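Interim report, section 4.2 (structural modelling).
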Amino acid sequence: MDAITAHHSTALLTDRYELTMLQAALRSGAAHRRSVFEVFTRRLPNGRRYGVVAGTGRLLDAIENFRFTGAQLDWLGDQGVVEEDTLEYLANYRFTGDVHGYPEGEVYFPGSPILTVEGSFAEAVILETVILSVLNHDSAIAAAASRMTSAAGDRPCIEMGARRAHESGAVAAARAAYIAGFTATSDLEAGYTYGIPTAGTAAHAFTLLHDSERDAFTAQVESMGRGTTLLVDTYDLAEAVRTAVEVAGPTLGAVRIDSGDLTLLAHRVRRQLDELGAEKTRIIVTSDLDEYAIAALAAAPVDGYGVGTSLVTGSGHPTCAMVYKLVARATTPDGPLVSVAKRSAGGKTSVGGRKWAARRPDADGVAEAEVVGTGPVPEALAPHLLHVPLVTGGEVVGREPLTAARERHKRARAALPLSATQLSKGEPVLATELLTS
Amino acid sequence: MDAITAHHSTALLTDRYELTMLQAALRSGAAHRRSVFEVFTRRLPNGRRYGVVAGTGRLLDAIENFRFTGAQLDWLGDQGVVEEDTLEYLANYRFTGDVHGYPEGEVYFPGSPILTVEGSFAEAVILETVILSVLNHDSAIAAAASRMTSAAGDRPCIEMGARRAHESGAVAAARAAYIAGFTATSDLEAGYTYGIPTAGTAAHAFTLLHDSERDAFTAQVESMGRGTTLLVDTYDLAEAVRTAVEVAGPTLGAVRIDSGDLTLLAHRVRRQLDELGAEKTRIIVTSDLDEYAIAALAAAPVDGYGVGTSLVTGSGHPTCAMVYKLVARATTPDGPLVSVAKRSAGGKTSVGGRKWAARRPDADGVAEAEVVGTGPVPEALAPHLLHVPLVTGGEVVGREPLTAARERHKRARAALPLSATQLSKGEPVLATELLTS
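Predicted structure of the assembly:
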């Protein structure tokens, strides 16, 4: 749990129209109709082969903390956002419904019913914004991170993007990156809040602060030991590598290169380190890396990647296009559900009905289709259903350690067809088949 | 002040390497050298004509709340991030230095010294990440927002992007958008925290919940009055407009169109509303708008724009490339400052020295150059200096109402050459001239 994001009311992380809809529905009586909302996306970012669900754990905290404080209610009243009867409803608000969804770390495709929220219209409609904020942000980061860790193969990726993202968004980004295979983060709050391993040693400022590079390296090694990582591109790279090994000895942990032609420089530095007897000193590269740059460095003697801007901005796609749509509702609080869907000519149509989803494997166990249905589940698909219960009768039941999501992502990605991890643009690697009853 | 972002310690919103540098510098004795760090950017996003400083107010809160709690210190010790002497330093940490910078809402260019942080190396180096997080995020949003409000002219822009951004990032985004001329936000937390006007009435779910569109419109008008905005594209647009005016009468406040060819539909709906006698009913459009779509709608009968995804993701540029670099330091706690700068071959070089900045106007008062210097200020430029004091001797002195930043942005943008607000790609509208002593 996080002092910044989880110990506090999430109730105002809400678009105003949710509360005005609530008020109008309380008046019309429709607020108590049993309703099913679905989170899905109509498309993946252009050219991407798969999406990655992330944020689920944070989302469960957000639902649990969705309670209005007295000060918030006073403000809503003062501002005339809603009137007395609605304020009373909000004062007692507590989500009592059910949430099912794809578990965190799972992959998804256009039309995948990523999350299903069921309850009265009143209690479910006002969760829209916070649910989408969390899932759209975290899943965008995880999707980018997954491409990077896939491109990096066995070499570790370290998340270093905090400075290029909103300060709380950065913490969530580190979490999403960890789920998608990153091994560590520079962000201490992410370590503190989520137990993600943290990493980092020194910046150029540290070298510039001292009277010489040698003074700086000496200070760093004295403080952090010979296993530290020395940053070698403040002045002359070859001289810095020589100084680094002189100061730390051949058991120096690593050097970091943060600028220039990284392929060329990695080869040059590797040769120099080997000549100096520092065969085990690793080479870490940073400097505006993305999945393409990581892939391009595959043949270079690099031992780890530090990734910043590109990770926290979703490598060109900083958000997902997930939406939260009413897909079914009863005409009484307990009546049978009726499918509903927008059907204007504008193109933003959706498929009504409460849905299940399964990932159908072929004979070799490789995923071959995402099957989404509104009727009974075909027997052959029953073992491959994707939804898990997350909230039951208002109680969070879907919490799990972050490592479980991390392991799940690894498995889910590995079960996709090989073309899933191609970096070139293409269609989603699985087609979504719709079975309507 | 905001329960989520401001009442809490910001001290761990920090990259680990800042604390390890601190420890090593405490050991070498260099930690107490007087130091000057500068925030600047080497480039604007590709094709952009100007940048917009935003986040300053949040930044001042972050500096003020940069205090380590006992639990945080215990964790840092347990994790071996730093050792006892450093933990002691952190336990007593409080920034005692000075911060000057471009005031919030001001525009900036490559090389503009956006923020200058001066103090001991120790106290200044550990603010790097949180300062950059806030400025890089908020300024990216403000830059996009400024292009949108410029394209919209006198028509209001409403920020509706919360669902597509990290939930706390969204609150900051609403704030940045307001500074850059947006008139309202959908995000209640942004209203609660920053006093930004909020807006919103209903989504498609509200129509789908009811047994008919007429039932839904009736419920909404009964709850919110005839001045409300009815969403008219759930089923058939023309029928919805007819029903809307029947239900609310000709004094209906507005209709909202959220899909389809907005130019075409706006003309069609305007004609229909006028025929129905609802000449004053406004037309609000939403649906993946960005500055280009807004500009394209200039000739359409539209009365307001709701902007979501594109705003909160910086319209293609979700972060800025601002960096935090040591540009000068003394060799004693109080000695004279010596300029320092990275000078490797990698291209990421910077200009050393503590800087001033002025925007030089031409004879007509139109800005003609951004002048940045390290020596004495030429007399003619003295009235045009850009820096203001933000923190003096550790005390925040630069707080101001959000409306002051909003007014400043309007003035600053208006004083730029006309080509500043062209949407086509181009060079920064002002060149930065460097005067070194």
